[in-house]
Amino acid sequence: MRLKLDENLGERGRAVLSDAGHDVATVRDQMLEGALDADLIEACCDEGRALVTLDLDFANPLRFRPSRYAGIAVLRLPRRASEEELQQLLLILVAGLDREKLDGKLWIVEAGRIRVFEEEEGS
Questions:
Q1: Over the stretch 48-57, which tens digit does the pLDDT of each residue have?
Q2: What is the residue-wise DSSP string for the chain?
Q3: Count of C-beta atoms within a 10 Å radius of residue 12
């Protein structure tokens, strides 16, 4: 899958997803750091990439309608999270991507699960 990692995810995130066979671009590599959320998600749309982020603003399906995009995966970390907890969420995401498509959906990736938001037809 074609993914874009937000600036709040580092090289370890890229490595986990790339090692799982995904085509990963980063906000940092494309010099989009500090871009407005709307500009970032549109860049993802233009490139046909799903966004992987820690930014909870992207978890609002009313603001960012999942059906318009190649997918949005928001990783929900607890406060004061460790590198290990981030690594676990990335592995949960990888497992989810192995099972189903992210396209047109919002995934909230949490410890032990993925909550999926998919718009109903006609919404």
A1: 999 999 999 9
A2: -EEEE-TTS-HHHHHHHHHTT-EEEETTTTT-TT--HHHHHHHHHHHT-EEEES-GGGG-TTTS-GGGSS-EEEE-PPTT--HHHHHHHHHHHHHHHHHS--TTEEEEEETTEEEEEEPPTT-
A3: 12
Cα separation values, 5 from 84, 93, 116, 120, 122, Å: 18, 13, 19, 27, 30
Q: Which of 118, 122, 114 is nearest to 52 (CA)?
A: 114
Question: Which residue positions in the chain have pLDDT lower than 70?
Answer: 121-123
How many structural domains is the chain composed of? 1
Does the residue 37 lie in any domain?
yes
Give whole-number Cα distances, 61 to 29, 74, 97, 118, in Å. Answer: 27, 12, 20, 9
pTM of the model: 0.93
Q: Which domain holds residue 31?
A: 2-118
Instruction: Say if 42 falls within a structural domain.
Output: yes
> Cα–Cα distance between 101 and 96 in angstroms, integer?
8
